[in-house]
Amino acid sequence: MKVSADFCLIPMGDHASIAPQIASVQRILVEHGLSHQLHAYGTNVEGDWDSVMAAIKACHELLHESGVLRISTSIRVGTRIDRTQTNQQKIEAVTKLL
């Protein structure tokens, strides 16, 4: 099943900036071959359900292995079976109406 997900992964610790950890997360998504787009408060990712969830799990594992003790992740997931539509196509559909 194809899925479009938006997730916000927050490493919990004593550092104000989490940019290095988020860069690591983005590299994991590339390694998993998933279509994704970083935004200010998370990442949109598209792919097969199991592949997307496996990639998010791999992000947690990598950060824990690098010493992050706690991670909080929020995930919103959307699926549809009537047709295929990418995140970019969703954006374009709205942009045309502006």
TrEMBL record:
Domain of life: Bacteria
Domain Thiamine-binding protein: 5-94
InterPro entries reported for this sequence: MTH1187/YkoF-like, Thiamine_BP, UPF0045_domain
Alphabetical list of Pfam families matching this protein: Thiamine_BP (PF01910)
GO cellular component: cytosol
Family per record: Belongs to the UPF0045 family.
NCBIfam families in the record: MTH1187 family thiamine-binding protein
Name of the protein described by the UniProt record: Uncharacterized protein (TIGR00106 family)
